[in-house]
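#help-structures
NK: newbie question, is this the right format to request a structure? protein is UDP-glucose 6-dehydrogenase
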Amino acid sequence: MKIAVAGTGYVGLSNAVVLSQHHDVVALDIDESKVAMLNERRSPIVDPELEDYLAHNNLRLRATTDPAEAYAGADVVVIATPTDYDTETNFFDTSSVEKVLVDVLSHSPGATVVIKSTIPVGFTQRLREEHPGATVLFSPEFLREGRALHDNLHPSRIIVGDTGEVGQMFADLLLEGAITKDVPVLLTGSTEAEAIKLFANTYLAMRVAYFNELDTYAATRGLDTRQVIEGVGLDPRIGDHYNNPSFGYGGYCLPKDTRQLLANYGDVPQTLITAIVDANTTRMDFIASDIHERQPRTVGIYRLIMKAGSDNFRASSIQGVMSRLQARGTEIVIYEPALTEDTFQGARVVRDLDEFAEQADLIIANRLDDSARAFGDKLYTRDLYGRD
């Protein structure tokens, strides 16, 4: 079977690698440097297992920037292009997905098109109405940045938004490439699959926001956050997981998915979804105020990334804190090895860790590692457990 994958981010590349263990896969990307790296069997993103699989496994995978080369003769096309949240329309920008679909239908009209990009509820149904005869379905992904391939090889569940033979076929493809075979498989309506994705991520955001607000209360009232969290987590209905305080939920998925779900509600009565979105702003406001009250002249930002093991700092909560501090007139200096420029959003970038530590009166870190712990009394963090 020939499979094309449009987009080589975490979602697209991990799916391409899994599927290319048993099928001929062509990965398409507009970035020529990414394509060159993949054809040299090097990963363009930080993910240890992806790097290992590309370097050492016999994968039937190649990459191209040419849509015709990727789509011609394809039996299945997986769309994994970005769908950033548009603050003007309050909806995902799905233009890249729609463009890929048009290209696929012109080169391989009989292909099954599976959308892996996160999309609004009802989007697939609209595409089907606009393109009669096209086979389009949605299959949500549940991957962690930095562990994307691992989560495809050992999926917690496989969900495909089609209850017929086509849905089962794609579920079987994913299961075929997985190492863990005892995986729950759920075939649903396509709109239900879209809702599952947004509600799942919004629940995770709610849990992050809950423990962050617990931490805000404890910090304000002089309580031991760790003791309160551990006591709450002893209730088996709550559990001792996904409870580590942070500067706020961030990264590529949770901020935009919560806003999209809120937009999808429209005139449907709700208060909780709005609160989840607002809680993140409130948390970053609190963190910035708590730092500002310590009256540092220069605040060091130790890493912009959202979580350990990732090189992605898009929409990271520490950037939200940084912008709030800058608005108050605080000088900012950044240590972030992933940056190549000398400034970032008006702040200086320092590449030497010792020089960075000397220049900052206070250093903030959303997540701890050994280097951050070495800052001693200069360090400000809400990370209690050293995990995401």
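mod (FA): yep, format's fine, and the tokens are attached above. Residues 190-221 form the longest helix (32 residues).
NK: thank you!
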